[in-house]
TrEMBL record:
<keyword id="KW-1015">Disulfide bond</keyword>
<dbReference type="InterPro" id="IPR007110">
    <property type="entry name" value="Ig-like_dom"/>
</dbReference>
<dbReference type="GO" id="GO:0009986">
    <property type="term" value="C:cell surface"/>
</dbReference>
<dbReference type="GO" id="GO:0042288">
    <property type="term" value="F:MHC class I protein binding"/>
</dbReference>
<dbReference type="InterPro" id="IPR013106">
    <property type="entry name" value="Ig_V-set"/>
</dbReference>
<keyword id="KW-0732">Signal</keyword>
<keyword id="KW-0812">Transmembrane</keyword>
<feature type="signal peptide">
    <location>
        <begin position="1"/>
        <end position="26"/>
    </location>
</feature>
<keyword id="KW-0472">Membrane</keyword>
<dbReference type="GO" id="GO:0050776">
    <property type="term" value="P:regulation of immune response"/>
</dbReference>
<dbReference type="GO" id="GO:0016020">
    <property type="term" value="C:membrane"/>
</dbReference>
<dbReference type="Pfam" id="PF07686">
    <property type="entry name" value="V-set"/>
</dbReference>
<dbReference type="InterPro" id="IPR036179">
    <property type="entry name" value="Ig-like_dom_sf"/>
</dbReference>
<keyword id="KW-0393">Immunoglobulin domain</keyword>
<dbReference type="GO" id="GO:0002250">
    <property type="term" value="P:adaptive immune response"/>
</dbReference>
<dbReference type="InterPro" id="IPR042414">
    <property type="entry name" value="CD8B"/>
</dbReference>
<dbReference type="GO" id="GO:0015026">
    <property type="term" value="F:coreceptor activity"/>
</dbReference>
Amino acid sequence: LCILVSFFLGFCINLLLLQTPENILAQTNNKTEILCELRKEHTGVYWYRWSQERQNFEFLIFSSSLGKATYGTNIRKDKFSVHGASSHTSYSLHISHLHASDNGTYYCSVSQSSQLLLGSGTRLSVVDVLPLPQKTTQAPFSKKPVRCVTKRKASSKKG
């Protein structure tokens, strides 16, 4: 898979980046956050979005370890921001003003040995109305002991 992805896109999925959560279901006009944890310190993190609908891989933002952000073409600065921990091994992408056009799979990425290593990806689905949680019903709990009654076969009477 890594060779195939690397061959076509120049990217490689790597386990040195732990990206969470795997899936996000969020409501329109709300905000969300994706976390990327690195096994070792890097000079910064890139964020990309794969849109299945548009069939494109889009550069969103690069955040340097110094906190300086570089945005991709036509990317709104009020929509995307990155917050990094002082250790430079944890970065979170914040996406605000969610809209259906934000649907896609988001990847954090670092540059290493002239390759871009990708995280595992976070699938974001934005909906107008969140589904209601499923209600679970439980049988009522009785404190009274229950007596089991077994029917005995009536003895047949001849007569």
